[in-house]
From TrEMBL:
<dbReference type="GO" id="GO:0042956">
    <property type="term" value="P:maltodextrin transmembrane transport"/>
</dbReference>
<feature type="region of interest" description="Disordered">
    <location>
        <begin position="24"/>
        <end position="48"/>
    </location>
</feature>
<dbReference type="InterPro" id="IPR006061">
    <property type="entry name" value="SBP_1_CS"/>
</dbReference>
<comment type="similarity">
    <text>Belongs to the bacterial solute-binding protein 1 family.</text>
</comment>
<dbReference type="GO" id="GO:0015768">
    <property type="term" value="P:maltose transport"/>
</dbReference>
<keyword id="KW-0813">Transport</keyword>
<feature type="signal peptide">
    <location>
        <begin position="1"/>
        <end position="23"/>
    </location>
</feature>
<protein>
    <submittedName>
        <fullName>ABC transporter substrate-binding protein</fullName>
    </submittedName>
</protein>
<keyword id="KW-0732">Signal</keyword>
<dbReference type="GO" id="GO:0055085">
    <property type="term" value="P:transmembrane transport"/>
</dbReference>
<dbReference type="GO" id="GO:1901982">
    <property type="term" value="F:maltose binding"/>
</dbReference>
<dbReference type="InterPro" id="IPR006059">
    <property type="entry name" value="SBP"/>
</dbReference>
<dbReference type="Pfam" id="PF13416">
    <property type="entry name" value="SBP_bac_8"/>
</dbReference>
<dbReference type="GO" id="GO:0055052">
    <property type="term" value="C:ATP-binding cassette (ABC) transporter complex, substrate-binding subunit-containing"/>
</dbReference>
Length: 453
């Protein structure tokens, strides 16, 4: 009988199947209280796709990512002759999200989409997203207990609102510290594991030969949109960005101040910089202009392709502080409620196929993303990749320290306001106390305005 609650999704499975290189005790995810879904009051109409049905899937994948999705989709349609999946590449993520919003306002949403949960929150609040719980619980075509236990808890919980599953995890990655192994060895520097060690390593690896205050080699490079993914440093300082239940912002707090003081220390010392015109933080590390950078594991294919000869790049978990929390992010797949019953069933069958062990393993092997099932580690295709590229093991080893960001409607707007203030801090134009106070005020206003739309 299909399981009708999502309980104990990963805890025991992962302890037996994964290493814990990030160390320490297991942590509860922020959304643990949401990892159980109540039996849905809605009953889906169709349990099989009995007639020719076309579904449209909007996404933002390109290059090898898009090629992998196309291969999986072609395989699905070959095995499911009644279903035609129309893949629509909408450009980058922002292009996709803008087009989704426009289509929602015009009542022309696609069957399904790739989307971040903090974006999906608005659509859920407006009743535009199909509840997938009945499909998951279906006796014939739903998830088994083994399926549920196979998906990391923090990933599955990211698609649950009010006890209902509105999205299934798809492409996930981890924020990590990439480092130039060659530079570290030559300088006799150990890979940092704490904030203090990180600061010291950045200082030792920074090179300013002509002493003009503009180093030829920076110790570390950060993404231009640092505020968007500021959460791990706030978490490691014992704080958070915001409360998902109450919408309270935590920008003007001692914990946030401690995290910003740490980051600002490197910027003011000229041992760290933003990506700037390089656009991506990994680029200066690839060509020897920086020793470290903070970037997603999804950047790995580009790093492998673009690294200069003679440079070896490796990756480590983000150095910790009071805690060792590690940020995981990425999109889920959701189905819109405007789809017909037959389209919803077809979309569910496609989602199951897209995220099964074999296909999540294949997608992870072909891209920089990580599989959304624990069992993928035993898949021959992905197991071979782990042998050839041990760096991909990192994200699997850090699951016990992982968390995903909050999903507040307007949360991104609030973080943008924080970003504006942090830009002034890092450029030396404004003090931290004043900046965080203004970020709190402006962030609260921005969130309220977003929630009123």
């Amino acid at each position: 009988m299909k399981k009708k609650v999502l309980a104990a999704l990963l805890c025991t499975t992962m302890a037996a199947s994964m290493l814990t290189a990030c160390g320490g005790e297991k942590k509860e995810t922020e959304k643990k209280e949401e990892t159980k879904t109540e039996s849905s009051t809605e009953k889906k109409t169709d349990t099989k796709v009995t007639e020719k049905t076309e579904i449209t899937f909007w996404h933002a994948m390109s290059g090898s990512n898009e090629e992998a999705i196309q291969k999986i989709t072609d395989d699905f349609m070959e095995q499911n002759e009644n279903v035609s999946v129309k893949l629509v590449n909408q450009g980058g993520y922002m292009d996709l999200f803008d087009k989704l919003m426009a289509s929602a306002k015009a009542d022309q949403l696609p069957t399904m989409t790739q989307i971040y949960s903090n974006r999906l929150s608005w659509y859920v609040s407006k009743g535009l997203v199909a509840d997938l719980t009945p499909y998951m619980e279906d006796e014939q075509t739903g998830f088994t207990e083994e399926d549920l236990a196979d998906i990391p808890e923090m990933f599955l919980a990211d698609g649950i609102w009010d006890g209902k599953q509105y999205a299934i995890p798809f492409n996930k990655s981890q924020m990590v510290l990439y480092y130039n192994e060659t530079m570290f060895e030559e300088a006799g520097v150990e890979v940092p594991k704490t904030w203090d060690e990180w600061t010291a390593a950045a200082e030792k690896l920074t090179v300013d030969e002509d002493k003009d205050g503009e180093p030829e080699v920076y110790g570390c490079v950060f993404a231009n949109n640092l505020s968007t993914d500021i959460a791990p440093w706030l978490k490691q300082a014992g704080g958070s960005t915001m409360n998902e239940e109450t919408n309270e912002l935590y920008f003007d707090t001692p914990e946030t101040k401690e995290a910003i003081e740490f980051l600002n220390g490197m910027f003011q010392a000229k041992t760290a910089r933003f990506a700037g015109d390089d656009e991506n933080a990994n680029v200066p590390v690839q060509d020897g202009r920086a020793a470290m950078c903070v970037a997603s594991t999804s950047a790995l294919p580009y790093i492998e392709e673009g690294t200069m000869e003679g440079i070896t790049i490796n990756a480590a978990a983000l150095p910790g502080h009071k805690t060792d929390d590690q940020l995981y992010y990425g999109t889920n797949v959701a189905v819109f409620d405007s789809a017909t019953d037959m389209q919803k069933q077809a979309a569910w069958e496609y989602i199951k196929f897209l995220t099964n062990t074999e296909n999540t393993a294949y997608f992870a092997a072909e891209t920089g993303y990580i599989p959304v099932r624990v069992s993928a580690q035993e898949d021959p295709v992905f197991a071979k990749v782990l042998e050839e590229k041990p760096i991909k093991q990192l994200s699997l080893e850090c699951f016990d320290k992982g968390f995903q960001g909050t999903r507040n409607i307007g949360g991104k707007n609030a973080l943008d306001e924080l970003g504006k203030q942090l830009d002034l801090v890092f450029s030396g134009e404004k003090g931290i106390d004043e900046a965080l106070k203004d970020a709190q005020t402006n962030g609260e206003q921005a969130m309220k305005e977003a929630q009123s739309n």
